[in-house]
């Protein structure tokens, strides 16, 4: 009997540093749809990848192959797949949906068994963005979604700092956290992953609570450390968190985000979805020297991270609703707004908009905060203070 197969759109850090190892350990084959020929060749040369988890020796992950989206064999591979997934980044989900649409159509035509798609994107609207692309390319799939085709999100707690092609293949570096929750309410029951065939993917019904917790508590501090570190001239998160001033600021941001999450649970009468994670556990994950996590990786795409439902503005809005002044989160948002790394196209474009329109107008577009909103004023005040400090240097 052949091993079950998962077809993943994307061969980035999360796909290679978390999903493929998880599937391999469960006896699955992983087929990564990858446009980068160098990465494909590195994976296919050995039929797998190397994973370095902090505190453990390098580990070979087998039963992994890569395929080009233009490969004529892809359609046949999709027809025999037991599970589908994405790991492309939120901004590429619609394109991934258009690419996956004919593959999913073929799979549902060739087999009477339902299929699920998991979006490993750590984004609240990831399934929606993917679905838009799917239906644009294959409108007939609309009748299958929720019946024979499930599309659900995933909240991945592992941090994967890098992917690199080396002489002996492709290597990924990650921390040791293996926690991952999937949206059971949006997936078709009785088939992977809801059949229990992949230990490590924990199905939950109140998935939105889990993804909000991940974004607001872990990702808010993660992003803040990167933005504050970049402004201080740091190259890695470990270097940034080694500075007492930045560590203290990030600690305050995590505490504020935690209060926002607790307020959210209380307002919506939710049970606490997971055991409370000590603040020290969160901060220690940012400081792991073995990861050598570059600040530019964590800080990339500031426009997306300043969205109203994302990691900085989302908890700040929740704080305001609960009567808490989000001064620390506002400082982090201002640091994100003024992030200007020249290698990040989104950051470069954001700086152009700031020059033309000013921070209040940009926030109204990026974060949907009205200029007269008190949160917008807090962020703008911090933005101008930072600009004045940097101009005085």
From TrEMBL:
Taxonomic path: Bacteria, Bacillati, Actinomycetota, Rubrobacteria, Rubrobacterales
Catalyses which reaction(s): D-mannitol 1-phosphate + NAD(+) = beta-D-fructose 6-phosphate + NADH + H(+)
One term of GO molecular function: mannitol-1-phosphate 5-dehydrogenase activity
Residue intervals of the Mannitol dehydrogenase C-terminal domain: 213-351
Domain of life of the organism encoding this protein: Bacteria
Segments forming domain Mannitol dehydrogenase N-terminal: 9-188
GO biological process: mannitol catabolic process
CC per GO annotation: cytosol
Pfam families for this protein: Mannitol_dh, Mannitol_dh_C
Protein known as: Uncharacterized protein
UniProt keyword terms in alphabetical order: NAD, Oxidoreductase
């Amino acid at each position: 009997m052949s091993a079950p197969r998962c077809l993943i759109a994307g061969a980035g850090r999360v796909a290679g540093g978390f999903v493929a190892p998880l599937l391999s350990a469960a006896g699955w084959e992983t087929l990564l749809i990858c446009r980068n020929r160098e990465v494909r060749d590195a994976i296919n040369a050995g039929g797998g990848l190397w994973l370095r988890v902090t505190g453990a020796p390098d580990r070979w992950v087998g039963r992994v192959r890569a395929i080009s989206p233009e490969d004529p064999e892809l359609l046949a591979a999709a027809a025999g797949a037991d599970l589908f997934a994405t790991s492309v980044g939120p901004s590429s989900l619609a394109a991934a949906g258009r690419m996956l649409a004919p593959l999913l159509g073929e799979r549902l035509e060739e087999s009477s068994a339902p299929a699920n798609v998991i979006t490993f994107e750590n984004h609240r609207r990831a399934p929606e963005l993917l679905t838009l692309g799917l239906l644009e390319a294959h409108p007939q799939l609309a009748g299958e979604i929720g019946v024979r085709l499930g599309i659900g999100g995933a909240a991945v707690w592992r941090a994967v700092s890098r992917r690199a092609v080396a002489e002996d293949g492709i290597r990924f570096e990650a921390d040791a956290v293996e926690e991952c929750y999937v949206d059971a309410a949006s997936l078709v029951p009785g088939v992977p992953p809801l059949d229990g065939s992949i230990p490590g993917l924990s199905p939950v019904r109140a998935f939105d609570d889990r993804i909000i917790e991940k974004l607001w508590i872990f990702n808010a501090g993660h992003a803040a450390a990167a933005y504050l570190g970049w402004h201080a001239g740091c190259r890695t998160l470990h270097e940034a968190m080694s500075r007492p001033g930045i560590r203290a600021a990030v600690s305050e941001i995590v505490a504020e985000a935690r209060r926002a999450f607790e307020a959210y649970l209380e307002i919506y009468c939710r049970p606490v979805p997971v055991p409370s994670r000590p603040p020290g556990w969160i901060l220690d994950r940012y400081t792991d020297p073995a990861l050598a996590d570059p600040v530019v990786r964590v800080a990339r795409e500031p426009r997306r991270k300043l969205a109203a439902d994302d990691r900085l503005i989302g908890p700040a809005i929740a704080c305001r609703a609960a009567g808490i002044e989000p001064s620390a989160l506002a400082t982090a948002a201002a640091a994100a707004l003024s992030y200007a790394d020249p290698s990040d196209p989104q950051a470069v474009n954001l700086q152009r908009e700031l020059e033309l329109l000013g921070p209040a107008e940009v926030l109204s577009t990026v974060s949907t905060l009205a200029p007269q909103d008190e949160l917008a004023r807090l962020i703008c005040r911090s933005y101008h203070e930072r600009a004045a400090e940097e101009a005085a240097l």
